[in-house]
């Protein structure tokens, strides 16, 4: 997904006809990847790179897909006083009454309608729709092709799988997982996994 975020910022620059963003590189805790090229961008090192280099002029985005892992990494990064960039792909349709938080990326082909609030460090992947007055909490991951209806609330760290649908006025509790292709028609408690049409709880998990 990091490769896609690189392209997102390249597309932002292309749409503006400039070079606002200079992409420095990736950090990856798998040290075997240090020195590799990803989508034309080098893997600079592990998180230890942060402590060995000047970061005052850098912006960071955590692109780990698992919400709980992303939350932990962001906590570490905040402790190091790092700054976070946000990005909205030029193809996104988003009303002026909607907003996104820091460290959040909204990739190509999304439609964000009116009065939508998207929190910090959220990933909205390709070709999703988010309806009016919906609230997406921090650290959520919305995978490709998801349809979120109006007045939906996704609490912190919810992961919604590819091509899932969340019907209107539904609340999904923190760090719950909605399986790919599921249809959620009623409230979901925190820290559970739901799958199917209609979605049903298949297991509980603790973050």
List the helices and strands and how they pair.
Blueprint: H1 2-16, E1 26-27, E2 37-38, E3 41-45, H2 48-52, E4 59-60, H3 67-79, E5 83-84, E6 87-88, E7 93-94, E8 99-100, E9 105-106, E10 111-112, E11 117-118, E12 123-124, E13 129-130, E14 135-136, E15 141-142, E16 147-148, E17 153-154, E18 159-160, E19 165-166, E20 171-172, E21 177-178, E22 183-184, E23 192-195, E24 200-204
3D architecture notes:
With 207 residues, this protein is α/β, with parallel strands linked by helices. The chain has an eight-stranded mixed sheet, covered by helices on one side. Strands 7-10-13-16-19-22 form a six-stranded parallel sheet, with no helix packed on it. The protein has a five-stranded parallel sheet with strand order 8-11-14-17-20, with no helix packed on it. The chain starts with a helix and ends with a strand. Helices cover 16% and strands 27% of the residues. The model has no long low-confidence stretch (mean pLDDT 97). It has helices at 2-16, 48-52, 67-79, and strands at 26-27, 37-38, 41-45, 59-60, 83-84, 87-88, 93-94, 99-100, 105-106, 111-112, 117-118, 123-124, 129-130, 135-136, 141-142, 147-148, 153-154, 159-160, 165-166, 171-172, 177-178, 183-184, 192-195, 200-204. It is globular.
Task: Describe this structure in a few short sentences.
By secondary structure, the chain is α/β, with parallel strands linked by helices. It contains 3 helices and 24 strands. It has helices spanning 2-16, 48-52, 67-79, and strands at residues 26-27, 37-38, 41-45, 59-60, 83-84, 87-88, 93-94, 99-100, 105-106, 111-112, 117-118, 123-124, 129-130, 135-136, 141-142, 147-148, 153-154, 159-160, 165-166, 171-172, 177-178, 183-184, 192-195, 200-204.
């Amino acid at each position: 997904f990091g490769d896609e975020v690189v392209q997102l910022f390249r597309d932002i620059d292309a749409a503006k006809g400039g070079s606002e963003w200079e992409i420095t590189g990736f950090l990856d805790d798998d040290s075997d990847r240090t020195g590799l090229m990803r989508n034309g961008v080098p893997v600079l090192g592990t998180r230890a790179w942060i402590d060995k280099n000047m970061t005052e002029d850098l912006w960071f985005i955590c692109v780990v897909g698992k919400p709980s892992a992303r939350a932990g990494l962001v906590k570490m990064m905040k402790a190091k006083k790092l700054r976070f960039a946000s990005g909205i792909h030029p193809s996104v349709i988003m009303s002026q009454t909607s907003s996104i938080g820091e460290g959040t990326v909204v990739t190509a082909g999304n439609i964000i309608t009116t009065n939508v609030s998207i929190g910090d460090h959220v990933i909205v992947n390709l070709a999703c729709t988010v309806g009016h007055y919906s609230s997406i909490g921090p650290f959520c991951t919305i995978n490709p092709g998801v349809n979120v209806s109006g007045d939906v609330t996704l609490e912190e760290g919810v992961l919604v799988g590819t091509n899932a649908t969340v019907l209107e006025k539904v609340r999904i509790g923190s760090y719950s997982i909605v399986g790919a292709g599921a249809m959620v028609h009623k409230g979901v408690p925190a820290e559970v996994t739901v799958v199917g049409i209609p979605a049903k709880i298949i297991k509980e998990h603790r973050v």
